[in-house]
Amino acid sequence: MKTRYIESHVLVAVFVFSAFFCAAQENYTPSKENIEARKWFQDAKMGMFIHWGVYSIMGGGGEEGIAEWIMQNKKITVDAYEKLPKLFNPTEFDAKTWVAMAKAAGMKYITITTKHHDGFAMYDSQVSDYNIVDSSPFGRDIFRELEQECKKQGIKLFAYYSQLDWHHPDYFPRGWTGRHTGRLESGNWEDYLKYQDAQIKELAENYDIAGFWFDGWWDQAAHKEDWHRAVDYRLKKDQIDWKLGRTYKMIHDVKSHLLIGNNHHEAPFVGEDFQMFEKDLPGKNTTGFGTAADDIGELPLETCETINGSWGFNLIDDNHKSQETLVKYVVNAAGRNSNFLLNVGPMPNGKIQDEHVKSLKALGKWMEAYGETIYGTRGGPFIKEDAYVTTQKGNTIFFHVLDPSVKEVVFEPGARVQKATRYDSGAKIKFKRSGKKTMLTVPVKEGDLVTTIEVVLKKSVR
Ligand code: FHN
Q: Can you give the pTM of this predicted structure?
């Protein structure tokens, strides 16, 4: 099947307008609505990430560590890969079930792949027929169905969109991936950007979304055959110009409240509204390709992590994270003023696998009991790596003790401690002052995943 792409003269119209203003992006000032959206985002604290596409049919090919990267890792050509959409018929997909599951887990938004690196659109794109409505037997716009269901159930929807594209003939020069797809070694980069922006524009205009989660910029940041050498991909040499300013300006002109984040693993670029960290708490960079501590900007933060070891569905990946691990991730993120975006990779039949339904329910149980210590808070003033973190709301500080061997916490509150209690039972906790310091006794109980103490100060401190 040869894919129909919209004629370039139509795209020029999109581009002439936005190109003229691209410089203006450098002076980006978020609108009042955008600032309000950022506050909502920071209060929301937790979302569900969903990696779902025709790659889910392959289930990772029986190999750990790949799922949505199967086209790259197994060097599948475009011609071969285009057979997959014809097999994609997720008859058990039900937006109501997914949204209800996210809500019950304590999530306030969903971020789903509208197009991953394979180039296949999981929404009814008018720009290319390489999409779920025009090119699969399923023929339904799952993004529209999720948009409608999110509105009904009162949570927000974000669009993950991969700038990297292993299918489009004009994604040229190639980056350090997508070099075994059988495409001609030629193409027009500007035409690809027009195509990319036309899809982004139709998502922004035609769907009621809260923002964009971009990915794939890093592919052009370095021409490396070997992913593992990409750690030096911050090298600025021979970098292709993504003209992000033009894209961001176009989005904010369509709807100024849309929140833009880009998983480029660099410090935030002008025009972005939140900063994400992949498989890491802000600035930890345990992955090696992440964002270093000194690159944490002033924007709202979001950490994303897989519920097992894979983003897309992987048949043999049984590294399912425990309830304790997930709860501690939420708490550690919130303690560092960051949201937590937890990923599931649904199966090709449209269902989320049982192990992850169970994990989400367990997380929701904790959030139901302790959500008040997370939602609407900001990172607290006290933290001791692996021992405890704090979240804060006004003059109340929640100490989340992560290590059960910690029996006391000593801190300088900066204001008089009026009350200290176990959050769950309200049982008073002994504390004593010594000079500027206060010492809290930590009443760890059997079964605590995290021991949360509520400390009320005479006045708010930062
Ligand atoms: O290559 C993608 C990967 O498939 C996945 O989408 C993650 C999610 O954060 N982002 C890229 C890897 O950095």
A: 0.92
